[in-house]
Amino acid sequence: MTDIPVKKVMIDTDPGVDDAIAILMALRFSSFQVLGLTTVGGNVPLARGTRNALALLEYAGRTEIPVSRGSALPIRGQYGYSFPVHGASGLTRRLPNPSSRPIDQRAVDFLAGELGKQPGEILLIALGPLTNLANLLTRYPGSLEQASGLVVMGGAVDVPGNVTGHAEFNFYSDPEAAKMVLSSGVPLTLIDLAASRQVAIDRQAARELKPRNNLGGLAAQLLNNWFRRDPGRQRFFFHDPLAMAAAFDSTIVNTQNVQVAVETADPVRLGESRISGRPGLVGVVRQVDQDGFFRLFDDLMSPDQGAIQGHG
Ligand code: RIB
Ligand code: CA
């Protein structure tokens, strides 16, 4: 069997149920070498998200992966959190209190250090508000460019948002950071709501999941408990898992390279994202291979065997 090249990744995250499923997928991708998680406030306060990240890694037996704390506050104001969606703890299944601790080094320094040690080698995947990446741009000019690639879940490019009619949660949580990253000149792939709304699971399908490994079992529990929390819930959108799947196999998405503007002034349109020019360095996902995504999601449920093949 041909060797699949190892892909070194770092994940910036605000776990969050869909973040957790994305992280579990990353841990199952045997060609992924997860060098670290950096946490950011967003779905839940930083301390809770950091605890969730540590607890997930401990549950998976992967405490060798360092977790570094990022920002508890956006560049301006404070995070609104997303307790109605993700619950007070941020996860829909209680995990044992982690015995591991985050590393002392804070996220921006950790990211700059790792990217600087291995320039052009590390794929950065951002699943929460972009505060840590914006702070990296400010404090370590040139560092973000050292990533081999950048995949971002965020925005609602010229489509309705999910927090306001205009804005998606990650961009709404820190519009200044989103504006800085998207105008930084660093090429990136943007999985926005127009893309992630194409991959969802309904209550019945979640019930019918047949996980055959412990990580898939946890993902299934997180999903089914999410539906149990509110009988009115129809579909769970795989926002962050789609970003993770696209990071693993870029062939499951088609992108259009444009310039994207983020609204940071108008209080009504705060966090809105719109195409502001062509061409550009933001690869907005325009088409999603849904079957391709669900093949990778189904692999999360498969028995522990063989490497999940990637295409890069
Ligand atoms: O709008 C969806 C995004 O906001 C996802 O990353 C979800 O985890 C929340 O952070
Ligand atoms: Ca997230």
Give the gist of this structure.
The chain has 312 residues and is of the alpha/beta class.
Characterise this structure.
With 312 residues, the protein is of the alpha/beta class. It has a single domain, classed as Ribonucleoside hydrolase-like (Inosine-uridine Nucleoside N-ribohydrolase, Chain A, Alpha-Beta Complex). The chain is 35% helix and 21% strand. An eight-stranded mixed sheet has the order 3-2-1-4-5-6-10-9, with helices on both faces. Helix 4 crosses helix 5 and helix 5 crosses helix 7. The two termini are 16 Å apart. The model has no long low-confidence stretch (mean pLDDT 95). Bound molecules: alpha-D-ribofuranose (RIB) and calcium ion (CA). The site of alpha-D-ribofuranose has 15 residues, from helix 1, helix 6 and helix 11.
List keywords for this structure.
single chain; 312 residues; alpha/beta; Inosine-uridine Nucleoside N-ribohydrolase, Chain A; two-stranded antiparallel sheet; globular; binds alpha-D-ribofuranose
Q: Secondary-structure map with pairings?
A:
Blueprint: E1 7-13, H1 17-28, E2 32-39, H2 46-59, E3 67-69, H3 83-86, H4 107-117, E4 122-126, H5 131-139, E5 149-153, H6 169-173, H7 175-182, E6 188-191, H8 193-196, E7 200-202, H9 203-207, H10 214-228, E8 235-237, H11 239-248, E9 253-262, E10 273-288, H12 290-301
Parallel strand pairs: 1-2, 1-4, 2-3, 4-5, 5-6, 6-10
Antiparallel strand pairs: 7-8, 9-10
This protein binds alpha-D-ribofuranose (RIB) and calcium ion.
